[in-house]
User: Fold these one by one.
Assistant:
Number 1:
Amino acid sequence: MEPVAALREVAFWLERSRAETRRVKAYRTAADVLAALDPDRLAELARTDGWTTLRGIGPKTSAVAAAAAAGEVPEYLVGLRAAAQPIGPEGSELTELLRGDLHTHSNWSDGGSPLEEMAYTARALGREYWVLTDHSPRLTVANGLTAERLRAQLAVLENLRLEMAADDDDHEMRILSGIEVDILDDGSLDQDPELLDELDIVVASIHSHLRADSATMTARMVAAVSHPSVDVLGHCTGRLVEGGRGTRPESTFDARAVFEACRDHGTAVEINSRPERQDPPERLMELALELGCLFSIDTDAHAPGQLDWLGYGSARAAAVGIPADRIITTWPVERLLEWTASGTRDEKVAKNRQSAREM
């Protein structure tokens, strides 16, 4: 192994297992330090065992780098691989059917890793398609993307598509363009409408004023999911049930009205796989299923190891009996894009209703 790859894989397994952020950061920082060095300097460090002379390299990260440089799989990495447990085993059959992930983040907004690393990790996990959905500009705390920055990101993604297509990896993965656009107070969307029309996938989510009254929240959400550009309603209640950010109660809204609007306007309800969200709650998943909605199981990953969290969402979907074909992330990419890019909203709604009838 190469030292950089070994350090990043350690970070992957730690992220996947929901280890403390400081532990993950130590290995990612060490990988970044070594990645910036030229081959001659790396060879010198390997020859002299001088890893800890570099700022950002400690005894534990040094041991991983030294073993990898010597052509060995580091003992710590061997242990992490062996200790890895299946995620959401109750939904394993459904997880096997998932082809893509429509909600992920990079360090262009509030993610922790470059989009290139996120893409290559998604491909290594066997995804057939992957969507980068960094935040929109209003969410300044998450370094949301202005229209100008989003256009720059789209150019980077196009170059990455060409790069990944040219390498010799046997597994092909489609990179799709996207955004997690903020739903504003009046239900409008926080991005240039013409730019939204250019994207493959638009996830719309609420991140502000989550404690507004039910009527206000309902009108806001219905307006957003009825917008022709929106494909997925993200983490609909906004709740947090665990984790370092503490807990947060569900937003109050008329779920029946919102899910009927999702059904009638061709917008899938996201089953967010983040353990601290577990959103929507089971009772709302059951209601959306009863009303004929489509769903999207997504990771909402902010780091490479979190891209393997789809099992959490699958287990929750399986628990309420959601059929695989009602989950758009089980669809082949051609079917997904035909649905999202239907020439008119009426066509998309018709496809939505046809999918529901087939079940």
Number 2:
Amino acid sequence: MTREPLPTPTVGRRTQTAAALAILASYAAVKSGRSSTLDRRAAKALAYPLGRRVDMLVAAGTDLGSVYGLAGIVGVLAASGRRRAATDVALAGLAAWGAAQGTKPLIGRERPYVVEGADRLVAVPAGSSWPSGHVAVAGAMSSALVPHVGRGRRRWLHLGAAAVAVSRCYVGVHHFTDVVAGWGVGVLSEALTRGARRGWAHRRRG
């Protein structure tokens, strides 16, 4: 039985460079205190009250970036026969989650509902605020799925990751600079995971 080759990655070096810069810029801004003004302005825009029904919808949708959301998406892909895509998404998502959790102690940032009195619309999240683990997982999943879909559908993947990022600010559990860093962590985690798998496959063939 011939092994199915790994799909060619379509998240290029420019995107990976942008992801690395996003993490570094966010980290520097938060550590220096220069992120405060930007975060407050973003919070005011992204946490604009839209009504109870929208609150409930966003509070449910934000968990697409959780490990439970990851498990659900992987399960749907596997059940539909897209096992390669399911594997890619699972590995990238878990790597992003681990990377986000591992970097949270670097800053130990308080959540916006703690320091700024933001309305929290979801259960109390674990860990500190920077970077956003949900956005990291969403960014990794969207990047992992890009090679598996046509060009016309790729924009929806990126919009989905962006929606999770906005939702984390809307529900009051993340600052804007948290989600910027989370996106960077997700993109780089997917790239590193795919690179490691390709290297392993090459060694096995050799």
Number 3:
Amino acid sequence: MTWKFPEFLYSYYERRLQRSLSPERIPHHIGVMVDGNRRWARLAGAPTSHGHQAGADKIHEFLGWCEELGVDVVTLYMLSTDNMGRPPEEVEQLLDIIANTLDRLGESNRVRVQPVGALDLLPDNLAGKLTALAGQTEGIDGLHVNVALGYGGRREIVDAVKELMLDSAEAGKSLEELAGELTDQHISAFLYTRGQQDPDLVIRTSGEQRLSGFLMWQSAYSEFYFCEALWPDFRRVDFLRALRDYGRRQRRFGS
């Protein structure tokens, strides 16, 4: 017989963890790499689509935790440019689940959604849905959710540089003039997340300890937290531990 940790003790531990958090040390912006859905399905002996659906359900639960604890911005790494190269049947199922997730976010009427990624890589119906949702939720004064779909960190930087060059050309500047005045702030102004504060904390589940191209530019001075739990198994207590760990760190911003 497998012994399980009593639920009431988990609840007590959660409350204790939350009381230990300092409100002024809650991250303003959290980036989340929702990793482990496929492995979760494999371990459960279930189809891959079941893992993706469990991961989508966890997203809604996670956003509720963020609202409750006072996080202002969340960037969800939901679909990378590399993910687009998986078997067509899996990609199609995943895109359907993502579309349903977007519908649920819109129906909540609580979050402001912003696309973060190369929309031209997505099917027209999904790109249109995401664009429409961004317009629909633009005026909502709630949690700001960046939805990273068709996202790749290198692609983002290339797109930013291209847009910067075109913008400079329209202003009548030569390449030499642009090169002479170019700073990191110029590139930041053309990123998908332009105008937003960089993430304070980046969380990755499933035990992997790498960025996989996520917010490569923006996370230069972010704190990182790697969790062994697969994303569908990520619990509120795991999130509270991540926030506690973040709150104990002395951020140096490269100094």
